[in-house]
Design goal:
By secondary structure, the protein is of the alpha+beta class. The chain has one helix spanning 26-46; strands spanning 2-10, 13-15, 21-23, 55-63, 66-75. It has one domain. Strands 1, 2, 3, 4 and 5 form a five-stranded antiparallel beta sheet that branches.
Length: 82
């Protein structure tokens, strides 16, 4: 099995994954990235206030040979009324 690393990015702040996970395929890494991104989005939504800026969240997946994929989510809230 290959080891994949899941670096988390919130805007310009990155948290590199130093341990990684051994997974059987890139498809399994893609599923893991999507689930981690959903968790990040849930945490980010809890911290949104009235004047919160838009948020760009991503999981950048790499293996020992370099980048593999990126899962990205943009939280863009536009109020229609105040």
């Amino acid at each position: 099995m290959k080891r994949y690393y899941f670096d988390m990015r919130d805007a310009d702040v990155i948290a590199p994954d130093e341990e990684g996970l051994e997974l059987p395929s890139i498809k399994a890494a893609q599923v893991e990235a999507a689930q981690a991104l959903a968790d990040m989005a849930r945490d980010a939504a809890r911290g949104l206030g009235e004047d919160s800026p838009d948020r760009q969240l991503s999981i950048e997946v790499r293996d020992d040979d370099g980048p593999v994929l990126r899962a990205r989510l943009v939280i863009d809230i536009v109020r229609q009324r105040t």
